[in-house]
Each structure stands twice: as structure tokens, then as C-alpha cells.
Design goal:
Shape: elongated
CATH superfamily of the largest domain: Tetracycline Repressor, domain 2
Order of helices and strands: HHHHHHHHHH
Number of helices: 10
CATH class of the largest domain: Mainly Alpha
CATH topology of the largest domain: Tetracycline Repressor, domain 2
Largest sheet: none
Number of strands: 0
Radius of gyration: 18 Å
């Protein structure tokens, strides 16, 4: 618990250097090869500082995913806020997922790695769960505003619908990354049709 608290207190330019260095290291060496020694060298800080604030590599990976998730969800604010139909909303969400798969597949590598780590570490599991919950809550808030505007008419409560949409996105991502030569266009079409049904009565 103390290590997690120290992690949250790390702010500013130095923290961003550490997070960016971990991200770069994972892209270059993979998660297994990304040691604190590599990260501290690339970030220009001591290994001791990484241990002090993060404790373990997994906790640093949580911070990388947390910051990435916050940026990605925030990027949805403007286009979703401007959406005037269910199809507008779905186009934004699908385009966001496709962009991540094409330009930043490492995000899902980190996410799946943390899921596995969390199966054996209750603290990591809790932190990843909280990360998911915050991301879902942000999207729920946006979609609730769209419901109040009459743009969508969800068939179920939005918390459940957003959890479902996140689950579908993660599942599609795993399949796309596992079978890079397969054409998943019809899968995206099926998922979009299902989501359209759930968001409009």
C-alpha cells in the first residue's frame, strides 16, 4: 500500500520521463526485457528512484497504462460531444479502436500483461480494476449526456452497456493482434450493429 501511495505522489516532468522511458523500452525490448536498469538509464534518473516510487515493474506499467488510458479517453470528449446520432458515436468509438490497433498495439500488450500480473497480485488487480472503472465512468458520463440530448436511447443501464462495449473492444483487439493477416472488417461490422441495437430502441 505504501508503494502505491508513493507512486501516486510522483508528478511532474521527472515522472513523465520515467513513464515515457518505460513505454519506449517496452516497444524496443518487450515487457520481459524492460528492466528498471534500462528505464532509469533512458529516463536519466537513478534505479533507486524507480524502486522508491514504484516498487515493482508491474506498478510502473500500471502508471503507463493509466496515463495512456486517460489521454485516449479524453480524446473522445470532443468528437463524442459533437455526435448527433448513434452512428456518429459508433464511428468515433470504432475509429478510436482501429487507430490504436494500427498505430499503438503496444497499449494492448501492456494491458494484457497487467491482467496476467493481477491474477497473481491482488494489489495490481485492484489498481487495474480501478483504472478500468475510471475509464468506463468517463465514457458513461459522456453517453449519459447524449441520452439526455435524445441522441441515444439505451436499452439497458449505461454502466452495463459501456462495460459490454469495453469487453467487445478488448476481445476484438486480442483477436486482431493474434491473427494479423485475417480480415476483421465483418467482425467490426457485426460489433457495430450489435452496439447500435443496444444504444437505440
Amino acid at each position: 500500500m505504501e508503494a502505491a501511495t508513493k507512486q501516486r505522489e510522483l508528478t511532474g516532468e521527472k515522472a513523465q520521463r520515467i513513464v515515457d522511458a518505460m513505454r519506449s523500452s517496452v516497444a524496443a525490448r518487450g515487457i520481459a526485457g524492460s528492466t528498471f536498469e534500462h528505464v532509469s538509464s533512458e529516463a536519466g534518473v537513478s534505479r533507486g528512484l524507480l524502486h522508491y516510487y514504484f516498487g515493482t515493474k508491474e506498478r510502473l506499467l500500471v502508471e503507463v497504462v493509466r496515463r495512456d488510458s486517460e489521454i485516449r479517453v479524453a480524446r473522445l470528449d470532443e468528437p463524442l460531444g459533437a455526435a448527433e446520432s448513434v452512428d456518429d458515436i459508433l464511428n468515433v468509438l470504432v475509429a478510436s479502436l482501429q487507430d490504436m490497433l494500427e498505430n499503438d498495439p503496444g497499449y494492448f500488450d501492456l494491458l494484457f500483461e497487467l491482467f496476467i500480473a493481477g491474477r497473481h497480485n491482488p494489489e495490481i488487480q485492484r489498481e487495474v480494476g480501478e483504472l478500468f472503472a475510471r475509464s468506463r465512468a468517463h465514457v458513461v458520463e459522456i453517453l449519459r449526456a447524449k441520452a439526455n440530448e435524445g441522441v441515444i436511447s439505451p436499452r439497458f443501464d449505461l454502466e452495463s452497456l459501456v462495460s459490454y462495449l469495453f469487453s467487445i473492444a478488448d476481445g476484438i483487439a486480442m483477436q486482431v493482434l493474434s491473427e494479423p493477416d485475417k480480415d476483421f472488417e465483418s467482425v467490426f461490422e457485426a460489433g457495430t450493429a450489435a452496439a447500435r441495437h443496444l444504444l437505440s430502441e
